[in-house]
Amino acid sequence: MQELPEDFSSLKIDNQFGLDDGNVVIKSLLPKIPATIFRRDLLRDFLKANGYKQPDFLVSEDFAKISAWAVKRNLFPILLKTAKNQANNQNTFLLKAFRELPAFYEEIQEHRPVLIESFFPAKARLEATFINGELVLVAQTGTARSLKYLTSWRVFPVYPPTRCLQEIRKAANLFAEIKILRNIPFRLGFAFNAEQTTPLSINLGFNRHEYFQEYGNRLVNRQSFAEPDKQLNKILFYHPPAEKVAEIDAEELLQLLKTSVRKIKIAATTVILLTSNDPTQLLEDSKKADGYFRYLCSEEIRPDNQD
Predict the structure, then answer these.
(1) Which of 51, 139, 245, 272 might form a disulfide with 156, Cβ 3.0–4.6 angstroms?
(2) Where in the chain are the domains?
(3) Using an 8 Å Cβ cutoff, are 186 and 175 in contact?
(4) 15 vs 21, 211, 255, CA distance in Å?
(5) How high is the pLDDT of residue 111?
(6) Residue 164 backbone zone (phi > 0: left; psi -120 to 50: alpha; other: beta)
């Protein structure tokens, strides 16, 4: 059985512990972890049983049942996704009208069973990462303005209000046997609202860019979340059509974003890392990057980086 290295600085994206196959490694290391890690419906039931409001949902392999649920509820937007967890928002669609359901069910059905659920509103969406039982990083996330419900940006580190941090730690304690696993990132996703910080997702593994040295490596030599960091990082994700990827000009982007850009990786999912001590500068450069891709691509895939 493989063991994870003690020093996270030795980890590299796309290697055996990286973004591509990190989840496979985690599964091989932890054959006895709870099923809530791998099934979204079981996680919903577990969190609801522990007093957390959760989206209304249905899991089925039958399109007729999924369609009937959507018709009966008749309240959009709704999310259509695979019930299998650890998918990193892949195969997740945001439906704004019933007419969109058949086409997206057709696209997702090979990943059955399918989960359809109500959209859970949030003032902000947060991801909290624990290592060896300690909270080490909180990031804020945003999603793309598109039918595919993909992450468009993450900002880190962020320091939520004390009440929010207390609720994050309280929710993590529900998974105590997972939280204390040695040297394995444990991550909870939350919807932050005035009345409650609500856990909605759970993951294990190294499948976040900000865990790695080339993107800030926030997990190295970081013993506690109590260590403040003035440097703010923002990772932008763009999902251009395949035929547009070759048209992305890295030099032009470097010049456009020269005030804060630290890294650009051009691919089917293009990744841009911005770093600054000035949040206003990050927002301005995010808007510039949006403008570049808005010009290059259709409006449908433009991220919303205005939060």
Answers:
(1) 139
(2) 1-32+122-141+158-227, 55-118, 230-307
(3) yes
(4) 8, 13, 30
(5) 78
(6) alpha
55-118: CATH superfamily: ATP-grasp fold, A domain (3.30.1490.20)
Name which residue leads in pLDDT, 32 or 150.
150
| pLDDT at residue 230, as a whole number | 77
Class of domain 230-307: alpha beta
Q: Is-contact 52 46, C-beta < 8 A?
A: no
The two structure tokens encoding residue 79? 């999310």
58-75 per-residue burial string, b: 16 or more CB within 10 A, e: under 16:
bbbeeeeebbebbeeeee
- Quick one: tokens of 140? 């804020």
Return the closest-CA partner of residue 123 out of 74, 152, 160, 172: 160
pLDDT at 253: 96
Confidence of residue 60 (pLDDT cuts 50, 70, 90): very high
